[in-house]
Design brief:
Keywords: Membrane, Transmembrane, Transmembrane helix. The chain is mainly α and 173 residues long. It is 72% helix and 0% strand. Helix 2 crosses helix 5, helix 3 runs antiparallel to helix 4 and helix 5 packs antiparallel against helix 7. The termini are far apart.
Length: 173
Amino acid sequence: MLNLSPLMTAAPVVQLHVAAAMLALTLGPVALFRRRRDRLHKALGYLWIAAMACAALSSFWIHSIRLIGPFGPIHLLSLLTLASLGYGLRAAISGNIPAHRKTMQGLYFFGLALPGVFTLWPGRTMNRVLFDLAPMLAVPVMAILILALLWLGRKRRVQKAARGAAFPLHNPF
């Protein structure tokens, strides 16, 4: 059963972080995986970038795992996310669409979806929201989600390789 009280009583920066991450998670499939690259893609893409930037920036005021002063390993991911957002946007503006696509889709999986799975760890706010009555139930759910993400990534690599095999650059035989 969903229990929103841990989120509603969390610090405002945590609420902002969750809202931005949920918006980015929701917009991602539409903005990043549509076949058509039109005005809707561009508008949703800018909104997705803003949501990702907000989630990454807000993380600097969340200090649940401290390693160096108030900062932890997740803050390195936030820095990488911000740099990748800039790189991906610059790639699109300069017309390097393959780099733009690869960067933004990689950010969706490795900067948002995978870290999102780890927010379900017992004791964390999202664990209390989703698994309030059985916090350890999140562990197998996390395992299933990680396996699903790995499977999706493998499936995309296999599909991409199959497309490349249809038009080989050279024949080694």
